[in-house]
Design brief:
By secondary structure, the chain is an alpha/beta fold. The protein is 38% helix and 14% strand.
C-alpha cells in the first residue's frame, strides 16, 4: 500500500469515526433531555414518536397518521422525527407536541434504541433508514415482517395504507391536511394571483416520472392562448416554457407551505407524481395528474382521500409507457373535456 493510499485511508477513518462519536454524543444529549421530560410527566404521559423524515410528499401523505395516533394516545407526548428542511410540515400540527429535526439517521437510531420512547411508529422502510457515513441501518422490523420493500410497496396500497402497515396501525382512508400559518396566507395573498389560474409542476426527483419539456410547452401555450388561463409553474427549478406574460415562474421562491397556498388559489393543479401533487390533494385543489409506468409498477396509486376515489382528481395514465411517453393529444383532450364541464373521470388505458 502506497503512502498516499495509507494517508487517504486514515483520513477516511478519522472522518468516519469522529462523525460517529459526534452523532452518538449528540444522541446522548437528546436521550437525557427526553428522560428529563418523561420524569416531569410523573407517569401521567407516555413518550411516543413517529418516524417519517422525507420526502415531503410522503410526509404530507402520512399526515392523517398523526391524527390517528393522537386518537390512540390522547394524553401522551407525541414527537414527529423529520429532516430539518421539512420540519415546517409538522411543527404546528395540533396532534404533534414536538417536531424533532433529525441531524442524521445514526443519531436517530441511537436515540430510538435507547428505550426512552414508550412507543415508536416507524413509517420508513427503505433509503431514509440508511446512514451513509457510518453504514448503520435503522431497520423497520414491522415492515420487514410484512415484506414491505422498495420493490413491492405499491402492491400494498396507497402511501397512507403503506405507512399504516409499516406502523402496524388499522387501515383507514383519510385525506391529508396542512396547517398553513396566517403569515404564509398573507404572503401569498399579497402576490395578487389571478382567479383563472392553473398551477403546474413539471419535474420530480426521479426522471422516470417526468413528462417531456416539449409537451409541457405545448400544453402551456394551449392553456393560455386557447383556454384563457394564467399558468404558474412551481417547483425548485423552473423549466423555461414560454415568454407569454400570462406565464408566472414561481419556482424556488417560496417555502413548501407557501407553495401549498399558491396551489390552493388555483382552479386546477396539473402535474406529475411528486410532492406538489400531495400538497394539491391536501389543500383540495382539483388535480390533473400525469402518470406512467414506474419501474415494475404498471398501475399504482400514491394518494388517499378524494384524489384516490376520483372525486377531486383525474389521473391520465398509460400502464405500458413511462410518463415521458404519454401522448400529448390524450392529455389535451382529457383537459378540454374537463374544462368544458363534462363528467370528471379517470382516463386509464
Amino acid at each position: 500500500m502506497s503512502v498516499a493510499t495509507t494517508i487517504a485511508l486514515w483520513k477516511h477513518r478519522y472522518r468516519k469515526y469522529s462523525y460517529i462519536a459526534k452523532e452518538c454524543l449528540g444522541a446522548v444529549g437528546e436521550i437525557i433531555r427526553f428522560l428529563l421530560l418523561k420524569i416531569s410527566f410523573l407517569g401521567r404521559r407516555k413518550l411516543i414518536t413517529i418516524i417519517r423524515t422525507e420526502h415531503f410528499g410522503d410526509i404530507v401523505a402520512a399526515e392523517p397518521l398523526a391524527r390517528q395516533i393522537r386518537e390512540i394516545h390522547p394524553k401522551d407526548y407525541i414527537v414527529w422525527m423529520v429532516k430539518p428542511v421539512f420540519k415546517e410540515l409538522v411543527v404546528h400540527h395540533p396532534a404533534v407536541d414536538e417536531a424533532w429535526a433529525q441531524p442524521s439517521v445514526l443519531r436517530r437510531l441511537v436515540l430510538c434504541k435507547s428505550g426512552v420512547f414508550d412507543k415508536i411508529y416507524n413509517l420508513e422502510f427503505w433509503q431514509s433508514n440508511f446512514d451513509l457515513v457510518s453504514g448503520q441501518v435503522h431497520k423497520n422490523e414491522v415492515a420487514a415482517q410484512k415484506d414491505i420493500t422498495v420493490f413491492n410497496y405499491f402492491e400494498k396500497g396507497n402511501l397512507l395504507t403503506i405507512f399504516q402497515l409499516c406502523a402496524d396501525l388499522p387501515i383507514r382512508d383519510d385525506a391529508p391536511r396542512l396547517i398553513i400559518s396566517k403569515a404564509d396566507e398573507e404572503k401569498i395573498k399579497s402576490l395578487g394571483l389571478p382567479h383563472n389560474l392553473v398551477v403546474i409542476h413539471c419535474s420530480s426527483n426521479y426522471p422516470a416520472k417526468d413528462w417531456s419539456v416539449e409537451n409541457w410547452q405545448k400544453l402551456v401555450d394551449w392553456l393560455i392562448n386557447e383556454r384563457g388561463y394564467y399558468v404558474a409553474q412551481i417547483g425548485l427549478t423552473a423549466i423555461k416554457l414560454t415568454e407569454n406574460p400570462k406565464y408566472l415562474d414561481l419556482c424556488g421562491k417560496f417555502t413548501i407551505l407557501q407553495t401549498a397556498e399558491i396551489i390552493k388559489h388555483a382552479t386546477y393543479f396539473i402535474g406529475i407524481d411528486s410532492g406538489p401533487a400531495h400538497l394539491a390533494n391536501a389543500v383540495g385543489t382539483f388535480g390533473v395528474l400525469l402518470f406512467g409506468k414506474l419501474n415494475n409498477f404498471g398501475h399504482y396509486m400514491p394518494y388517499s382521500g378524494t384524489y384516490q376515489n376520483g372525486k377531486n382528481a383525474v389521473i391520465i395514465s398509460d400502464t405500458n409507457k413511462t410518463c415521458a411517453e404519454l401522448d400529448y393529444q390524450i392529455v389535451q383532450t382529457q383537459l378540454e373535456t374537463l374544462m368544458t364541464g363534462s363528467q370528471k373521470k379517470t382516463l386509464s388505458m
